[in-house]
Structures are given as structure tokens and as C-alpha cells.
Design goal:
Blueprint: H1 3-18, E1 23-26, H2 29-36, E2 48-52, E3 58-62, E4 73-77, H3 83-88, E5 95-99, H4 105-114, E6 118-122, H5 124-132, H6 136-158, H7 166-179, E7 184-185, E8 190-193, E9 214-219, E10 221-223, E11 226-227, E12 230-236, H8 241-259, H9 267-280, E13 292-294, E14 301-305, E15 318-321, E16 324-327, E17 331-334, E18 337-341, E19 346-348, E20 358-359
Length: 360
């Protein structure tokens, strides 16, 4: 097995030991790819990588799937085989069996009936904690996705001209992703003009930009399976004084949060650093979402930067820092970066200027 995947398996097994799990069923295709480099979308079919504390992992695969040569013990089945029984006969006889959070009940419940001597428990933390701390290859891929994102947001902002609609800007950005070698957007590109920006998840429509509008673009691309994400807010032709001041506040909240990031601090304290600044300025009720989310193969991975998450930061974590202020019917601003927790601080993956400016 490639050294990269051995290291990833070792991380998961360390977490299994901490959780006192004797076995673990992995069904999330993203986690299976993370551990093996093998990708299949199983649709409704059973697809399982089974791990014990030691020994060869076992791969349970439908014959319809394409699986390259690997170091796993393979168990093949067809749609008409009793695949739950095949699985049941080749997992633990007793002990604690972890199940990842996405495995459907139509597989889990029959297995529980066949293996009543087992203690079933949620095992997703073993995978989520391992995937939360990116290795050097993942960091390289995510930096590349962010580099492309930086280029394309600059082009997207420059495309905002008299008469253009939100939809047209979003479509233009997604074309730029392709031109720069990205595989696809990592989520629907958000382009919001004026009052539409007060909705944090506004879908671009036929709204035409007007003088004095804020222009909020939240965008990300996927490159070689890994995602980027960022948000910048500008103004069209002129910046109303009140809104420019709010933008400065949000940018400062973003920078304040980023300035305290290093290994070993509660994620909740990072949220508080940004939120307290916005609350003290009188806009706390208009910052109505968590400060950030983890990201990797998916645009939102397990883990967040919120008031309720007291888990400690670790080297290799990558998450967003995205404070915002949203005034219904008037205006919205968000400033978002991805940050990598380093040995003694953090690295901001986005290089595009965060200060407000006027688009002409």
C-alpha cells in the first residue's frame, strides 16, 4: 500500500483506539477514497470498507463497480446475493463496531439483527478527526484550488459593469473556473447585488446592478477533488458611507479572528473574537451564522468554528473564517478566507485584498 494511505489508515486506527472500537464500517465514498484512492459512487448499493485494529482491511464491493488492484481483502457480490450476510460473516464476532454516519438504515438494521452480540456505536469521529487535519498532499491540493479561486474572483469583480445581472456574473465566474483548470464549482456561486446580499445564501437571479449597490461574491471551485471557498464584497460606482463603515468592521472581525489562530485554542474562542467585535459595534443581531466551517473534499466537512464547538485547533486543520453583517432590505457584507492551522499560527490561503473598493 502507498505510504500516504498507510499514514491515513494509521490516523484512523489511532482514533479507533481512542474510541475503544474493535471494528469500523466505512461507507462514505469520500472517506473510502481518502483511505485508498479508490472512487465509486454506490448510489443505492452497499459499498463498505471494513477496518479492524490490525490486519488487512476488507472491501465489500458490488460486481458492477470498478476497483483497481489494491491491498485489501475483497468480497464481491451481485445485486441478487445476500450481501448483508456476506458482510455479517466477515466482521467481528463480538466487541464494539463503529458505523459511519451516512450508512443507510436499510443496511444497518439487518446487520444489527444478524449480529446481536455486537455493540453498535457511531464511529464517524474516527474518520472526521483524521480527515480534519490535512496532510501535506491535501494541503498542496487545497492551496492550488484557492489559487484558482483568487484568480477567478478578480475576473468576476472586473466583469461587473452597467446592465449586468447576478446570473451573468455567476455564469462568467464558472466559465473562468474551467479556463483555469478547475474541475467544477464546489458549490453554487453566490452573486448578490444590493439588498439581495442581506440573504447569506441568495441564489443569483436577474437583478441588475445599480450605482451604490454592494456586490457580494461567495465562490469556490474543486480541483483534483479538493475545494476552495472565499467571499469578497465590493461596491458598484460608489460606496455609501454607512455601508463602507460596516465593511471595515466585518473585515476587522475577520482579521481579528485570524490573528489568534494557532494550535491548541478552542474553536469557540475564534468565533468569539469576531463576534464580540461586531456585537460591540451594535450589529451582533445581524451576524446570524457561525463564523466558519471545515472544508476539504466537500465544501462543508464535519467540524465548525462556532460558539458551541470547544474542540481545540490542531495543526493541519483548514476551515473558513467568514464574519458577516446582514441588514434586511438594505445591504449585506461578508469577508471570508480559508485558513490553515500551522505549527505556530495560521496561513491564510486567499490572497485577494479584503478592503472594500469601488467597481467602475
Amino acid at each position: 500500500m502507498d505510504r500516504l494511505y498507510i499514514e491515513r489508515f494509521n490516523k484512523v486506527r489511532e482514533e479507533m483506539a481512542a474510541e475503544k472500537l474493535d471494528g469500523l464500517i466505512v461507507s462514505d465514498p469520500y472517506s473510502i477514497w481518502y483511505l485508498s484512492g479508490i472512487w465509486n459512487d454506490p448510489y443505492e448499493r452497499m459499498y463498505v470498507l471494513y477496518i479492524e485494529k490490525d490486519g488487512k482491511p476488507k472491501f465489500f464491493v458490488n460486481r458492477l463497480f470498478n476497483v483497481p488492484e489494491n491491498d485489501f481483502e475483497e468480497f464481491w457480490f451481485s445485486d441478487t446475493d445476500d450481501y448483508i450476510n456476506i458482510l455479517a460473516e466477515n466482521v467481528l464476532k463480538n466487541g464494539r463496531l463503529g458505523i459511519d454516519k451516512i450508512w443507510p438504515a436499510r443496511f444497518l438494521i439487518p446487520l444489527m439483527e444478524k449480529k446481536s452480540d455486537l455493540k453498535f456505536c457511531l464511529g464517524s469521529d474516527c474518520l472526521d478527526k483524521a480527515r480534519a487535519c490535512k496532510d501535506s498532499e491535501e494541503i498542496r491540493l487545497m492551496k492550488e484550488a484557492s489559487r484558482i479561486n483568487d484568480i477567478c474572483i478578480e475576473r468576476g469583480m472586473a466583469f461587473v459593469k452597467e446592465g449586468v445581472t447576478e446570473k451573468e456574473v455567476a455564469e462568467y465566474i464558472e466559465k473562468q473556473f474551467k479556463l483555469e483548470g478547475a474541475d467544477c464549482p464546489s458549490f453554487e456561486t453566490i452573486v448578490s447585488f444590493g439588498a439581495n446580499a442581506a440573504d447569506p445564501h441568495h441564489s443569483p437571479d436577474n437583478t441588475v446592478v445599480k450605482e451604490g449597490d454592494c456586490v457580494l461574491i461567495d465562490m469556490g471551485c474543486k480541483k483534483d477533488r479538493y475545494c476552495s471557498d472565499m467571499t469578497r464584497t465590493r461596491f458598484f460606482k460608489k460606496a455609501p458611507e454607512e455601508y463602507a463603515e460596516i465593511h471595515d468592521l466585518v473585515r476587522q472581525a475577520n482579521e481579528k479572528a485570524e490573528s489568534i489562530i494557532k494550535p491548541g485554542i478552542p474553536l469557540s474562542s475564534i468565533d468569539a473574537a469576531a463576534r464580540d467585535l461586531i456585537t460591540q459595534a451594535g450589529y451582533g443581531q445581524y451576524f446570524n451564522h457561525r463564523l466558519g466551517h471545515f472544508i476539504g473534499q466537500s465544501e462543508h466537512e464535519q467540524g465548525d468554528v462556532s460558539a458551541s464547538n470547544n474542540n481545540l485547533t490542531k495543526e493541519g486543520m483548514i476551515f473558513s473564517i467568514e464574519p458577516g453583517v446582514y441588514l434586511p432590505g438594505k445591504f449585506g457584507v461578508r469577508v471570508e478566507d480559508l485558513v490553515l492551522v500551522t505549527k505556530d499560527g495560521c496561513e491564510v490561503l486567499n490572497k485577494v485584498d479584503k478592503k472594500w473598493s469601488v467597481l467602475n
